[in-house]
Write a structure and sequence with these properties.
The chain has about 425 residues and is an alpha/beta fold. It has 15 helices and 14 strands.
Length: about 425
């Protein structure tokens, strides 16, 4: 079975001429906004006095039991309530007091692809009438960073700013220049740079506004997957060849740091990530113009546990699937199978496919010769609306191994050894 990227399918009675174009959609202009001010809210390492806490993962930001939405109308209620529930129980109260610059060490927000984390943090700020700014060191979780940009949550990576920050410090952040200033210490910092496309998403107010701006053109455009000729392919890795073939903009260069628009062969979600994806899709498309593109949903996270809240969560995806006529194999009911096993078993994952999945384990599709990677729900919902996603090309390293592996040493051991050399702990 070969996965086919289909053009947009309009719902009955919809005239494409009535879909707003770029000139009519919000988000077409810069919305950088005024300078943001607030005080530092610092996560300290209890084991090392004076050191900021490293490796705060998304499970600590939003515990699993709070990654639930009981309806689209109350989408983020539990996410806000669970923000740093165990790591900092008084987090929401401190934000209300004006501590709106969250300061943490390296590798902030690593782990799960759950977009409930940045969405919950942003919601906590909004309910307090404030804009939060995340200030952290190097190695920030890439999925969280992309999700934050999509949602309009400000993130600043600056080790120097983290090291200098102390309790009670007053900070300011200029969204226009992205300059961070510790007003108390009278120091300014330039954060890690964004690609031009990432900065456009940030300035426009997030991925939903970008989606509205690009929606009509995406509906009118016929997807084109064109593979490189032999001469071009010889200069590309297998990953780069897949990226090259799936480019929306055929003149875009595939190089480290570039942000590309890429057609997706499959856009799968779990029952946990589907509700926010549905919300994003509806916000971009109006909910009554097209059927979701390249969609797949697996119910395997919130099932068979007899919890009313979880049943309501899975019901959101079920109702959406029924509305748009999505059935097996693209909609897996409880018991059909596990996300990353089920879709390959159904022939939906094939060599050369590009599969951004709203689950951090989506990279498992590399085992089938596809390019799979984890994305947040807003990226997935954007893809359901447009047929493509934004992707920033990572830098590559060539690793040459010599000799023989010792008995019982597996590929995972090799990867962990490499990570230990490259700085991950």
């Amino acid at each position: 079975m070969v996965q086919v990227i289909r053009p947009a399918e309009l719902l009955p009675g919809v005239d494409v001429k009535r879909i707003p174009g770029p000139e009519d959609a919000d988000g077409s202009r810069s919305q950088a906004g005024a300078v943001i001010r607030g005080n530092a809210l610092i996560f300290w390492d209890s084991k090392v006095p004076g050191k900021k806490l490293d490796a705060i993962d998304t499970d600590q930001i939003t515990p699993a039991n709070d990654c639930v939405s009981e309806s689209l109308d109350t989408l983020d209620h539990r996410w806000k309530a669970g923000s740093f529930r165990f790591l900092m129980p008084d987090f929401r109260e401190r934000v209300r007091r004006g501590e709106s610059f969250i300061v943490a060490g390296d590798r902030f927000a690593i782990g799960s692809s759950r977009e409930m984390s940045p969405a919950g943090l942003k919601g906590v700020g909004e309910e307090a009438g404030r804009e939060l700014v995340i200030v952290c060191g190097a190695g920030m979780g890439d999925i969280f960073r992309r999700n934050a940009l999509n949602l309009g949550l400000h993130v600043v990576q600056s080790r120097a700013a983290v090291e200098d920050a102390q309790e009670g410090d007053a900070f300011s952040f200029d969204p226009e220049t992205r300059t961070l200033t510790n007003e108390t210490r009278r120091k300014s910092y330039e954060p890690a740079a964004l690609s031009p496309a990432e900065d456009d998403i940030r300035r426009s107010g997030g991925i939903i506004k970008i989606g509205r701006r690009e929606f009509r053109d995406a509906v009118l455009r016929t997807p084109d997957i064109s593979w490189p000729d032999a001469a071009t392919a010889r200069g590309l890795t297998s990953t780069e060849q897949i990226l090259w073939a799936h480019r929306v903009d055929k003149d875009a260069a595939v190089r480290a740091g570039a942000t590309l628009r890429l057609y997706a062969d499959l856009l799968p979600a779990s029952d946990g990530t589907a509700p926010f994806s549905i919300h994003t899709f509806n916000q971009i498309t109006g909910g009554d113009t097209i059927r979701p593109r390249q969609i797949a949903v697996a119910n395997d996270h919130f099932v068979f546990n007899h919890r009313e809240a979880d049943d309501k969560q899975t019901a959101i995806g079920k109702q959406f699937a029924e509305l748009h006529g999505i059935t097996r194999p693209h909609y897996a009911t409880p018991g059909d199978g596990i996300f990353h096993f089920y879709f390959p078993e159904q022939g939906l994952v094939v060599p050369g496919a590009l599969i951004p999945g709203a689950d951090s384990h989506s990279r498992a599709y590399g085992a089938y010769g596809a390019l799979g990677y984890g994305v947040g729900s807003t990226t997935l919902g954007f893809g359901w609306a447009t047929g493509y996603v934004y992707f920033t090309v990572a830098a590559q390293r060539r690793v040459v191994f010599k000799g023989r592996l010792q008995p019982w040493v597996s590929g995972k051991d090799v990867v962990l050894a490499l990570l230990s050399r490259w700085g991950a702990k």
